Q: What sequence folds into this?
């Protein structure tokens, strides 16, 4: 079998018969060959199984796959930094000016000095939160690693929440969801999330609050393909009727 993009021969280890897809190591193209074997490709429609089209690979995602391990990494950097960095500098710069003036121009023996030092503490907390957000968006990335034993999600290098590790024996199905919220001005925004349904019926969150739907759908596809999990509809996922999701998060 040859790659339809670059024409290179596909190694047998890079052909997934169960899902009728193959990966080209030369150009990293992932393509389906189900149309060449229509009888075999149609078997996925029985008993609730389905064959979804191979989603396009987002340019923001780095993928490294071998028969033993799948690693996917994407950066947190986004256009929000254009506004976040100047605002953080302005906010914290004002606080530096405020405390510099208070400490150098007003003697500590003056009761007013303590008022000047204590009054902006809430603003200091906001400034630190802005600085933390700015640094995480600027420097952090998320890496999902899948091997024969576990599925791991790691965020870093700046510490944050959301790291998770699951045994692959627990995994039943992966699916994406969308959540739309409306602010006080009536403007709507949609965030997407990637979840895993465990064999015991519980749901665990892998990634939440994302703006790139295609990124999550491609990661879902790659994880299921690598582990040999046949995709089936899950209530509440994107493109499936039903708003509620199965199970309850375990934290």
A:
């Amino acid at each position: 079998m040859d790659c339809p993009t670059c024409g290179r021969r596909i190694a047998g280890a890079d052909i997934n018969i169960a899902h009728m897809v193959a990966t080209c190591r030369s150009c990293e193209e992932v393509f389906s060959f189900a149309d060449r074997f229509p009888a075999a490709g149609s078997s996925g429609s029985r008993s609730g199984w389905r064959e979804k089209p191979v989603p396009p690979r987002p340019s923001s995602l780095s993928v490294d796959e071998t028969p033993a391990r799948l690693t996917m990494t994407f950066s947190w950097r986004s256009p929000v930094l254009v506004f976040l960095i100047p605002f953080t500098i302005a906010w914290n710069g004002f606080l530096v000016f405020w405390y510099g003036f208070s400490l150098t121009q007003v003697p500590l023996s003056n009761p007013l000095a303590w008022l000047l030092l204590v009054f902006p503490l809430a603003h200091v907390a906001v400034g630190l939160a802005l600085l933390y957000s700015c640094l995480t968006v600027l420097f952090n990335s998320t890496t999902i690693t899948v091997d024969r034993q576990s599925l791991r999600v790691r965020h870093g290098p700046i510490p944050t929440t959301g790291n998770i590790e699951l045994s692959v024996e627990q995994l039943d199905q992966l699916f994406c969801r969308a959540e739309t919220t409306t602010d006080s001005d009536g403007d709507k925004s949609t965030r997407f999330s990637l979840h895993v349904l465990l064999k015991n019926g519980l749901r665990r969150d892998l990634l939440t609050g994302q703006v790139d739907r295609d990124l999550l759908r491609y990661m879902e596809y790659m994880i299921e393909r690598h582990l040999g999990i046949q995709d089936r509809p899950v209530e509440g996922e994107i493109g499936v009727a039903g708003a509620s999701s199965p199970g309850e998060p375990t934290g």
Remarks:
- The first helix runs from residue 38 to 41.
- The chain has a mean pLDDT of 84.
